[in-house]
């Protein structure tokens, strides 16, 4: 992701900064997707594996990245 773009992106809920999720975090979440146990903030099952993620500064939420596009919708956030 372009560092300049990342520097201006914010969590749509809290306005905290976002950082690129570590690969191990994305792998752990994708394992949960594979078992059907991962749900988002809207309590909907996450059925598509993540290409990556952006983690909120407080480390409590991750916004998925799909096809190199961050999905910055409050309901799509995944609790960490």
Write up what this structure looks like.
Helix content is 24%, strand content 22%. The protein has 80 residues and is α+β, with helices and mostly antiparallel strands. The chain has helices spanning 3-8, 23-35, and strands spanning 18-20, 52-56, 61-66, 69-70, 78-79. The protein has two helices and five strands. The protein has one domain (3-79). Strands 1, 2, 3, 4 and 5 form a five-stranded antiparallel β-sheet that branches. A hairpin with a 2-residue loop joins strand 3 and strand 4 (69-70).
Topology:
Elements: H1 3-8, E1 18-20, H2 23-35, E2 52-56, E3 61-66, E4 69-70, E5 78-79
Antiparallel strand pairs: 1-2, 2-3, 3-4, 3-5
Brief descriptors of the model:
80 residues, alpha+beta, 5-stranded antiparallel β-sheet, 5 strands
Structure class? alpha+beta
Tally of DSSP β-strands = 5
Strand content: 15-25%
Radius of gyration: 12 Å
Per the principal axes of the C-alpha atoms, what is the gross shape?
A: globular
In DSSP terms (H or I, runs of 4 or more residues), the helix count works out at 2
The biggest beta sheet reads:
5 strands, antiparallel
Weakly predicted, low-confidence segments = none
The helix/strand order is HEHEEEE
Assembly category: single chain
What is the helix fraction of residues, given as a range?
10-25%
Number of domains: 1
Mean pLDDT, all residues: 96
Q: End-to-end span in angstroms?
A: 21 Å
């Amino acid at each position: 992701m372009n560092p300049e773009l990342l520097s201006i992106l914010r969590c749509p809920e809290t306005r905290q900064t976002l950082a690129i999720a570590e690969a191990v975090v994305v792998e752990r979440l994708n394992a949960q997707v594979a078992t059907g146990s991962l749900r988002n903030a809207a309590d909907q099952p996450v059925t598509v594996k993540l290409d990556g993620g952006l983690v909120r500064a407080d480390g409590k939420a991750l916004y998925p990245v799909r096809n190199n596009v961050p999905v910055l919708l409050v309901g799509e956030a995944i609790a960490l």
